[in-house]
Every structure is written in C-alpha cells, then in structure tokens.
Amino acid sequence: MIPPLAAGAGLLGACLAIARIPNLVQSPGLFLGLFACAFLCYLVGAWWLAEDDQPRSLAIVLVVGLGARLALAPVLPTLSTDAYRYVWDARVARAGADAYAYPPTADELVALRDVNIFPRLNHPTWRTIYPPGAQAFFRLVYRIQPDSVVAMKLAVGLAEIAGLVSVLGLLRAGGRPLSRVVVYAWNPLLLVEVWGMGHLDGLVIPAVVGAAWAAMRGRHALVGALLGAGTLVKLYPAVLLVLVTPAAWIPVLASFTAVVLAGYLPWVPSGASVLGSLPRYVGEEYFNPGPLRSLVDSPLVAVAAALAWIVAASLIRRKAPLPVRAIPLIGGLLVLSRNMFPWYAVWLLPFLAYAPSVPWILFTGTVAFAYTFFLSEPWAVPAWARALELAPLALGGLWWLAGRLPVARTAESSR
Q1: From CA 217, how far away is CA 295, in angstroms rounded?
Q2: Secondary structure of the chain in the HEC alphabet?
Q3: E strands of 174-322, at which residues?
Q4: pLDDT for position 404
Q5: What is the pLDDT of residue 400?
Q6: What is the average per-residue pLDDT within 330-343?
Q7: What was the pLDDT predicted at 411?
Q8: pLDDT value of residue 332
Q9: CA torsion angle for 236, 239, 243, 248 (degrees, to 10)?
Q10: Closest by alpha carbon to 132, among 93, 77, 102?
Q11: Which residues contact 409 (CB under 8 A, 6 or more apart)?
C-alpha cells in the first residue's frame, strides 16, 4: 500500500501548498506546477486503488479526499471570483431588490457597494445569470452568515460531500467497486474548482448523480425531480433528459416540469427576465474558446452544434446505463462549448468514477492549462496550452479509430 499512501500524501501536500498562495492569478506558473504534481499523484492513486475493492482502500480514499478538501476550504477564491457574485446576489435580495433586473453598477444598488465584495465582482455591468434555485441557495447561506465568501464556499462544499456519498451509492447500485470513487474524490480539478474557488457546480453534483442512481433503480419520478432541481441551480442538467428510456418519459418529464415551474413561477410577477444577462454571457464572454468557436465565432452555430450533438448522443449505446451514456453526451458538449472553463468539466467526474475513461480523465487535468491565460500580458491562453488541453481526447480518438480499422478490414475481406 506504499504507492497509494505516497500518492495521497503528495496530493494533500500539493493542496496545502496551493492553499498557501495568496493570489493564484499573480502566481499562475507556481499554481500550474503544483496542480500538475497533484494530478500526477491523483493518477497514481487512481491506478492503484480504483479496482481494489477492500475496506482499507476505501478508507484511504475517503480520508485523503476529506483532508484535501479541508486544506482548500479556508482559501479565498482568486482564479475565479464567481463566489463573490453569489454573495452579492444574496445581498441584493436581502435589500429587497432584484438581481435579474439590476446589475451591480446600477444606481439603484449604490447603497449596497462595499470594499470587500463589490470590487471583486466580474462583469459588474451584467445582471445575474444564475437560475432561481441558485438564488434561493445564496439567500439561505446569506441568512446564516451574511457577506461571507468562505461561508458560501463551505455551503457549496457540504453539497459536494453529499454528492460524494451519492457517487458511492451509484457505484454500489451498478455493482462497481466502491474504491472506484477515487476517480472522483481525489480529482484535483474538483478540489480546486469546488473547494478552492467555490463554484456552484458542486451543488449540482448530488442532483445529477442522484438522478442517475434513481434511473438505475427505476424511480422515474425522482429522476425528473432531481434533474429539475439541478436545472434550477445551473441549466445544463436538463440535457440528461434525453438519456431517459422512452418507457419513463411521462413520469420523468412530468416531475421535471413541475419542479422547474415551481422554481420559476415566483419570479414571473417581478417582470424582470429570469435569464438576466445570460444572452450576453453566451455571446460576449471570452476566456478559453472551444475548437468550434475558434473556427466559427457564432452563438447560433454553437447552439445548433450542441443540439445536434445532444440528439446524436441520445442514440449512442441506448441499452447502456445512464451513467455510461452521460460521458459522451457531457464530454461532447464541453468540447463544443463557447468557452471551455475548467469547472465545466466537474460534473463529468461522477460518471467517470462509474465508467472510467482514460482520455476523459486526463482531460480533467489538461483543461486546467486554460489558466495559462494569466501567464502573460495581455491575458490569453497560448496556442501550446490549447493544444495540450485537447491532446488526451485527440489521442484517445486516434486510439479508438486504430482499434476499429482492423475490424473493418476483416469484415471487408470476409465478403
């Protein structure tokens, strides 16, 4: 057990070192070096522990995973300041205003500006883009601990812990080794983006994993309700509806619709668009453009490509369990997205624990090289980093094709 223990110690050490960097944007090279070390330790640990279905192995996975989370929990987010926007939206609601109607720079909100939260808001001229379920979560945390970014992060982290438990349940339901949870629990991308930066994606994980779990147990109404709850936090869980078996469509869609309507209807009387500045986000945000956007910078083309992929992915391996089918669906949408933000890949991880894929697991490491954005002035992701991001997927695709070419030749020669 020396290699996995050493790997776990290395992962913990890297997380502790990252936590000691005051501002990751000002030290991107050091951060990426430590992230690479953490990811190497993660790969070693996953290699040794994923199929070793022994109580001792599971204990190592959980203890190290919890330790790495606690190491990053007190960190103030710097790579991304989204968590500050979560607090701001709750402050606006507490003051009786509407974050869907007013951007932070609006004159109506001038009394809410301070020196801690307001200066760190990204896109202060944009209205909020977060759905009603997220807004309810922000208000709940704010009621318990007002104006605290760390409290907001911890609340997201607690939800992610529930997601970790759900991954264990999903593995058990599918007859997979429980120790395979290491693919999820030790992943540095998840640790940094959820526990370090406090991204809301951690709140989505228990919903989507719970829905997959419920689908495997035939609890169709619960599938729809959980996907609806996830969609009220971030919109993307709704795409998993296309993976539901036709026999379950009615109860799934009925419960999904009921939950989503319950979340959105209270906002209708306000008269403000609950999309906020989401159209601007889709059209104007520019960080780490995906391959399609690099060729054709058109939101309409991106939406059309995403819809086409959703339809195509719904037809792939239709008899496979939902967690298996979710990987190509989610992965394809990540690659087709307008911006490949690293945290967009977080919700892929639970399904990779269920059905590990080497190219996609490696991609959750290489996508972090989007943060080379901060290496030079003016900020931009260099070409070598963009190539490195997609290298695991390109090599995986070539390997897949190479494995099938002999089959095609054999079939041709037998005619």
Answers
A1: 43
A2: CHHHHHHHHHHHHHHHHHHCCCCHHHCHHHHHHHHHHHHHHHHHHHHHHCCCCCHHHHHHHHHHHHHHHHHHCCCCCCCCCHHHHHHHHHHHHHCCCCCCCCCCCCHHHHHHCCCCCHHHCCCCCCCCCCCHHHHHHHHHHHHHCCCCHHHHHHHHHHHHHHHHHHHHHHHHHCCCCHHHHHHHHCCHHHHHHHHHCCCCHHHHHHHHHHHHHHHHCCCHHHHHHHHHHHHCCCCHHHHHHHHCCHHHHHHHHHHHHHHHHHHHHHHHHHCCCCCCCHHHHHHHCCCCECHHHHHCCCHHHHHHHHHHHHHHHHCCCCCCCHHHHHHHHHHHHHHHCCECCHHHHHHHHHHHHHCCCHHHHHHHHHHHHHHHHHCCCCCCCCHHHHHHHHHHHHHHHHHHHHHHHHHHHHHHHCC
A3: none
A4: 79
A5: 87
A6: 96
A7: 52
A8: 96
A9: 100
A10: 93
A11: none
pLDDT in tens, 41-59: 999 999 999 998 899 999 9
User: For residue range 251-304, what is the model confidence (pLDDT) as tens digits?
Assistant: 999 999 999 999 999 888 776 688 889 988 988 898 999 999 999 999 999 999
- 348-376: pLDDT as tens digits: 999 999 999 999 999 999 999 999 999 98
The secondary structure of residue 289, as a DSSP letter, is B
In whole angstroms, give the CA distance from residue 241 to residue 231: 11
Picking from 274, 293, 231, 277, the residue whose alpha carbon sits closest to that of residue 122 is: 277
CA angle 11, 15, 19 (to 5 degrees): 170
Query: Does the pLDDT value for residue 388 go beyond 70?
Result: yes
Tokens of 224: 């729809």
Task: Locate 405 and state its tokens.
Answer: 């070419």
pLDDT tens profile 218-227? 999 999 999 9
Contact 160, 170 (CB under 8 A): no
In the numeric block, the tokens 């690099």 are attached to: 294
Residues 6+ apart with CB under 8 A from 254: 221, 224
What mean pLDDT is predicted for residues 93-105? Answer: 95
Q: Does the structure show a pLDDT above 80 at 409?
A: no
How confident is the model at residue 272, as a pLDDT?
A: 67
Bridge partners of 289? 339
Q: Tokens in use for 289?
A: 């453009």
Which pTM was predicted? Answer: 0.94
Neighbouring C-beta atoms of residue 213, cutoff 10 Å: 27
For the chain, which residues make up each domain, given as ranges? Answer: 2-413
Residue closest to 184 by CA, chosen among 345, 7, 390, 23: 345
> Where do we find the tokens 């992230």?
35
